[in-house]
Amino acid sequence: KAGVTQTPRYLIKTRGQQVTLSCSPISGHRSVSWYQQTPGQGLQFLFEYFSETQRNKGNFPGRFSGRQFSNSRSEMNVSTLELGDSALYLCASSSGRMEQYFGPGTRLTVT
Amino acid sequence: GQQLNQSPQSMFIQEGEDVSMNCTSSSIFNTWLWYKQEPGEGPVLLIALYKAGELTSNGRLTAQFGITRKDSFLNISASIPSDVGIYFCAGLPMIKAAGNKLTFGGGTRVLVKP
Description:
heterodimer; A: 111 residues; mainly beta; 7-stranded mixed β-sheet; 4-stranded antiparallel β-sheet; 11 strands; 54% strand; B: 114 residues; 6-stranded mixed β-sheet; 5-stranded antiparallel β-sheet
């Protein structure tokens, strides 16, 4: 089976812009979770989608949003980008409430 | 913020050594996962633990789910240079409403002794 794929791998944006990141889970996996990784805060949970519904949300401002499509692919969107949003954004897929498999991440740099 | 205390934060290994790291929490977890992350990549799942007291191996890696459900450790035996990377523990709460929300430790950076 192919692993979790994320696009794009690298992105440079300017403050105030918005960005959309994409994640394709492992075939058959219906749960997709998003995490932000920064040197200062480590890995932090953003949100989880299961069968097109947001099942859980972390402590991030409303500028961070996501969605999931009927084929389980997911996107996350960050609006009005701030310098502090620079991070590695990781997507993880799971077939149930158990182990999660991560993609390679999207490295977002905000200037 | 993070709720898992992972130690040590970093360690140097010499080829052939056994090393270990652990995670502790004030909360009970239903599942413990151990990941390894290398530069520019996402975390790769090494071992998954589901039952208190469970001891599971994956090659030279061995991990245990603590009996209290509040801790876990990972051992690497006979370390080799490619063991270099950052190792993360992650816990999944017992509360079903938490879904798949993983809480991560701060990571243990494994480096090779010069």
